[in-house]
Specification:
The protein contains 13 helices and 13 strands. With 409 residues, it is an alpha/beta fold. The protein has two domains: 147 residues, Alpha-Beta Complex (Aspartate Aminotransferase, domain 1), CATH 3.90.1150; 233 residues, Aspartate Aminotransferase, domain 2, CATH 3.40.640. Helix 4 packs parallel to helix 10 and helix 12 packs across helix 13. The chain is globular. The two termini are 16 Å apart. Keywords: Hydrolase, Pyridine nucleotide biosynthesis, Pyridoxal phosphate. Its cofactor is pyridoxal 5'-phosphate. GO terms for molecular function: kynureninase activity; pyridoxal phosphate binding. It catalyses: L-kynurenine + H2O = anthranilate + L-alanine + H(+); 3-hydroxy-L-kynurenine + H2O = 3-hydroxyanthranilate + L-alanine + H(+).
């Protein structure tokens, strides 16, 4: 194994030396005691200047300007940041994206709004192994509204396909809920073709972008997507619990009614009216007071992404995952490890998943040694590779540590 590691290490160095995004690595705070952080698809690393940004906020925007900051800048943050996400990351024209609430709450708002728009249709279709929050929210809405929730099986490695949707969607289907990138395998769904197929039957589509936003280009407008939700604490590095964002196609906004009526989504926020009247446009999807403090780290990461460009970020992501797949083949496959992610980079997102019966015991030992991948039951490790904060050498160190852990088990 030594010769293989030496050769792979030389390859990783060459890739890092040629990396046009290499300079971004130093903009992230060092992680003490961590030699390989392979979980950026669950929680992104903080930037070096995040502490200073928060300190300045406490001293000036909050500490000195106090409540005046609401009028000066905070009230517009949800839509301003939403438009920046739309332009840089998800292919959305202005006025269609807003930051606020958690992923779960936004899923609830958009699913509820979507099914309410489809009278006479009594079915919600969701991929059977979608992330639990998506499935649980859909289950709750179906239960409350007397709808049928149909769970659609999909290939565990290849993910959901247009053929799967064509065979499943009917005239009864009100809404299809899918992840753009599968949280387990990393499989990329064909957003444009799947959306078109669902629309052909009159169904609406809600896309979960949590594992795609910030690591590969998303083109919601070009795909004529209806709704989308994404989080900001993975590849957008907003920090634990940072708010999610919602996209609602402009053609649907005035036709929708989201179920959580709050003062920030009202047409006259400070009018203190007797009855609720929704704000025009995307702002109607707000409810309560925006989490301004939690938006600060997100702003810093958006600046980096805008500087780097999503095309270059995607190119590095492909390079990182390709190196990991090669290392898995050479170092882990001989030890009984299965590759659970597509070999085709066009079908692969920003993480690589591998399987072995010994991973449940191995991962705690890796964490103790400063190698941090993500474990997914029953026997999977996800190697999450956030392009702006991860080198090829670091990714390889993680795979080598897994190989050595299995050898010593």
């Amino acid at each position: 194994m030594t010769d293989q590691i030496t050769r792979l290490a030389a390859q990783a160095r060459e890739l890092d030396d040629a990396d046009p995004l290499a300079g971004f690595i130093e903009r992230f705070a060092p992680a003490e005691g961590v030699s390989a952080y392979l979980d950026g698809n669950s929680l992104g690393r903080p930037l070096r200047d995040t502490g200073a940004r928060l300190d300045a906020f406490v001293r000036h925007e909050w500490g000195s300007r106090l409540i005046r900051s609401w009028d000066e800048q905070w009230l517009d943050l949800p839509t301003e940041l939403g438009d920046r996400i739309g332009a840089a990351l998800i292919g959305a024209a202005p006025g269609q994206t807003i930051v606020g609430d958690s992923t779960t709450v936004l899923l609830y708002k958009l699913m509820s709004a979507a099914v309410a728009m489809q009278p006479g249709r009594d079915e919600v279709l969701i991929e059977a192994n979608n992330f639990p929050t998506d499935r649980f929210v859909a289950e709750g809405i179906a239960h409350a509204r007397g709808l049928t929730l149909r769970q659609l099986p999909a290939d565990p490695v290849g993910g959901i396909t247009v053929a799967d949707i064509a065979a499943a969607v009917t005239e009864r289907t009100a809404l299809v809920v899918l992840s753009h990138v599968d949280y387990r395998s990393g499989a990329i769904a064909d957003m444009r073709a799947i959306t078109a197929e669902a629309h052909r039957h009159g169904a609406l589509v809600l896309w979960d972008l949590c594992h795609s936003v910030g690591v590969l280009p998303v083109e919601l407008d070009a795909a004529t997507a209806d709704f989308a939700v994404g989080c900001t604490y993975k590849y957008l590095n907003g920090g634990p619990g940072s708010p999610a964002f919602a996209y609602v196609n402009a053609s649907l906004q005035e036709l929708t009614e989201q179920p959580v009526w709050g003062w920030m989504g009202a047409a006259d926020v400070f009018g203190m009216r007797e009855r609720y009247e929704p704000a025009p446009g995307i702002r109607r999807f707000l409810s309560g007071t925006p989490a301004v403090l939690s938006m600060l780290p997100l702003q810093g990461m958006l600046e980096l992404i805008e500087e780097a460009g999503i095309a270059q970020i995607r190119a590095k992501s492909v390079s990182l995952t390709a190196l990991v797949v090669t290392a898995v083949d050479e170092l882990l496959a001989p030890r009984g490890v299965a590759l659970l992610t597509s070999r085709d980079p066009e079908r692969r997102g920003g993480h690589v998943t591998i399987g072995h019966e010994g991973f449940a015991d191995l991962v705690p030992r890796l964490w103790e040694d400063g190698v941090i991948p993500d474990f997914r039951r029953p026997d999977g490790i996800r190697i999450g590779l956030s392009p702006l904060s991860t080198t090829h050498a670091e990714a390889l160190r993680g795979v080598v540590a897994i190989a050595e852990g299995l050898t010593g088990a």
